[in-house]
């Protein structure tokens, strides 16, 4: 069952230089991502990976083509109608994007606050998430007191707060050393297996997709140049 469908999606940006034409960041991509998959999007910097994935929660809008998420076309949807869909899509980032002036608990509670959850539900949900990511002892600490791996675990807990069905991970391990990368990938595997959440993982690191992804799309110059099961795509010739 397809949970995310790209149909002939093109995204062009205007060049910043005077008289410049358009940059085609995503060039006629058609792709289906199935519910329950860990789906890897791999390619060099500038290949169009972030642009493609940011169209899933409509942070970017396609120039043409359609993007369907959880049965709804999101590409032309207004901001207010996007809200309930965005609540079902969590996102984590390379630089973690935590609030430095909020505690770990407050960071995780933030999406629940935005969604006006009752205070006692917020507390219960945050405790549950802290336990899931193994940071109960750091509830009242601040991001600056945490290691990179711990910060990303807070990012994951925050992304999971509203019980999303999809988690978007944009170079989520690229700022981490190999050992910490392994820990974060193990946690993402638990998110997929225990919580049944579909994960779309952008990376330029081949070992990351090989370790965790079921299926993969390889991007180059805006196009998906290859797609399939991770074992087939990376099989030795
Ligand atoms: P990747 O995630 O694979 O590194 P991106 O999607 O970030 O690739 O970028 C694809 C191309 O689009 C690059 O040439 C990049 O410079 C360009 N690009 C990305 N975002 C913008 C933007 N907001 N404005 C103009 N060009 C952009
Ligand atoms: P990454 O390559 O890790 O995706 P970038 O540094 O390319 O990150 O992009 C960071 C931000 O800048 C993104 O929001 C992206 O859309 C924007 N961006 C990237 N390239 C351009 C560009 N050529 N012009 C304007 N904005 C850009």
TrEMBL record:
Q: Which UniProt keywords apply?
A: Amino-acid transport, ATP-binding, Cell membrane, Hydrolase, Membrane, Nucleotide-binding, Translocase, Transport
Q: Any one Gene Ontology biological process term? A: amino acid transport
**GO MF terms on file?**
ATP binding; ATP hydrolysis activity
Q: Any idea of its EC number?
A: 3.6.3.32
Q: Keyword Cell membrane, does the record have it?
A: yes
Enzyme class per UniProt: hydrolase
Give residue ranges for domain ABC transporter.
4-237
Give the CC-aspect GO terms: plasma membrane
**What is said about its interaction partners and assembly?**
Homodimer. Forms a membrane-associated complex with FtsX.
Q: Which family does it belong to?
A: Belongs to the ABC transporter superfamily.
What exactly does this protein do? Part of the ABC transporter FtsEX involved in cellular division. Has ATPase activity.
Provide the protein name.
Metal ABC transporter ATP-binding protein
The record lists the organism as Bifidobacterium minimum
Whole sequence portion shown = 3 to 239 of 376
